[in-house]
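FAQ: What does the model actually see?

It sees only this:
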Amino acid sequence: MYTLSDFDFELPPELIAQTALAQRSASRLLEVEGASAAADTAHPRLTDRAFSALPSLVAPGDLLVFNDTKVLKARFPGQKAGGGKIEVLVERLTGARTALAQIRASKTPLAGSTLRLADAFDVIVGERVEPFYTLHFPQDCLELIEQYGRLPLPPYITHDASDYDEHRYQTVYAAHPGAVAAPTAGLHFDAALLAALDARGVQRATLTLHVGAGTFQPVRTENLAEHKMHTEWYELSAALVDAVAATRARGGRVIAVGTTSMRALEAAARAAQAAGLAPGNLRAAQAETDIFITPGYTFQVVDRLITNFHLPKSTLLMLVSAFAGIETMRAAYRHAIANQYRFFSYGDAMLLTRSPAPCASPASNTPTSC
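And it is asked to produce this:
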């Protein structure tokens, strides 16, 4: 079986995009076509394109599924009652005045203690919900977060969030506050591109998955089965379920915009199957998921995936390797590095096609394409 080392690669630091392009759809797009019966052994077809060319790469009747979560201004500087400095990152809202958060401090804050955030208001530390703390806010969480918080840029972006980042690190269709990281594949879409997709007859639907800080959590064990994912909240509407069914009926393809949309769709399909529905079917739901997709996973819903380039040894690199084939992804990343693509949240994107369903090699029990 695959181990953590199978998902490592050397990335020149200068390829980590530190700022977003002024025009969203001006980024580059690597079209990766490796989904043949020999996807993991043949050389994939890799085509360099502009992201603005996306409408020509999808067909009328295909369905793009977007994640409409909105990033919270979830980062706060603060101090303990005794004056010690802390940093708080809100992970998720659990009520009108309660939230789970990470707290960086020299000493663990005690339940019942008071923390001063942004030199503006106090919160009370409640029970520990590993690895987070419950925080009790004095009034509506969203109001205080939006008024006093700072945008939580990813750890590999070295500058503090600016006014430009507060605009650019949100998708143009963000609607439901609750994420602490952007669904970054969606950052490439602007109004003109969406209009071009509509004109081509491509369908659109939305779901919500509130991305947690766990999306940046490193995998620390060689044995992937020992890695524990953070949970994330998602919602699928009846309208989305109907849109997916209609796409299937007309022979169209379901295209996930980002790994967050992918995780929500596949988690919902798995839950629906556990409830007695046939594989690949969905039902409207609000739920949490800790789905961890690695090579060998059988995809039920998504046919194609639009995604950015991901960190070495990350769960998202494992996900795209499961989707398109590990050797296909290795070839794509080598090509991207050689051709100076921009990496990670503010970087360029790929368009992937699902490889054939995996099977186990009788000799090695390692998933291969069959």
